Amino acid sequence: MQPMTISHEMPTNCAGNLRASPVLAELSFPAMELYAMPAATATLLEDSAVNIDEWIAQEVEQVFAQQEGAAFVNGEGAAQPKGFLKYTTVANASWEWAKIGYVATGEAGAFPDEDPSDVLIDLVYALKAGYRQNGSFVMNRKTQSAIRKFKDESGGYLWQPPSGADGRATLMSFPVVEAEDMPDVAANSYSVAFGDFNRGYLVVDRQGVRVLRDPYSAKPYILFYTTKRVGGGVQDFDAIKLLKFAAS
């Protein structure tokens, strides 16, 4: 598999210039191949009242989506996308390019006992304004369950349900994305992410899903050899910040 490469602007300081100037840097994104080979008999395909080909394709797509979601968070980057949690992390005060900045909760494996929501505010404002306006929280359902109990000074919940059928819940006015592959809250875990993921994380699909119908190799079954190539990785390290459940 060939890595996918793109050029991306990264900040740097030019000698004799007090202002930061962007330069182009090449980033490489490994691509992995997802594949599945479901089978059905010719009789089933001919006699079924539903479109079996379409149903199989939908089922395979769901499995692929689950595998992609896991890789975009925790992928190792070897013949698969590199998850944003697998990059080197650093305290946001010492942030530098090619690393993901984090804000610590001040408590190992927990939110602070007093004013726990303050660390979420710190996380939001760790992001620059240009990214913050399109920011969203990412966490799993267990973490979201804990944060849903946070209240403001007037007793109102910070977490708000979706405003419509196709909407998303919000936290402090920012959308909340539920990702089951995010880690549970534990000592030194990065269980909450906040950022502009459209700018921060690049997903590259090659040619979409391809299906090869094979009626010969496994008679009387017809095989549907389904493949998809996908790559991904962080392209803008300014755009994603993490909440670390640790003292520092």
Structure in words:
The structure is a single chain. The chain has a single domain, classed as Major capsid protein gp5 (Major capsid protein gp5 fold), CATH 3.30.2400. The longest helix is centred in the N-terminal third of the chain and has 23 residues, at 52-74. It has helices at 42-47, 52-74, 118-124, 129-132, 141-147, 197-200; strands at residues 4-13, 20-29, 31-36, 39-41, 89-91, 100-104, 136-139, 159-160, 170-171, 174-178, 190-195, 201-218, 221-234, 240-244. Helices cover 21% and strands 38% of the residues. The strands form three sheets. An eight-stranded mixed β-sheet has the order 5-6-14-11-7-10-9-8. Strands 3, 4, 12 and 13 form a four-stranded antiparallel β-sheet that branches. β12 (201-218) and β13 form a beta hairpin. The protein has six helices and 14 strands. The chain has 248 residues and is α+β, with helices and mostly antiparallel strands.
Summarize the structure.
The protein has 248 residues and is α+β, with helices and mostly antiparallel strands. The protein is built from 6 helices and 14 strands. Helices cover 21% and strands 38% of the residues.
Helix content range: 10-25%
Query: What is the tally of helical segments?
Result: 6
CA radius of gyration: 22 Å
Shape: globular
**Unreliable runs:** none
What portion of the residues fall into strands of 2 or more residues?
35-45%
CATH architecture: 2-Layer Sandwich
Structural category: alpha+beta
CATH topology: Major capsid protein gp5 fold
The CATH superfamily is identified as: Major capsid protein gp5
**Widest β-sheet, arrangement of strands:** 5-6-14-11-7-10-9-8
Number of self-contained structural domains: 1
Count all strands and give the number: 14
Top CATH class? Alpha Beta
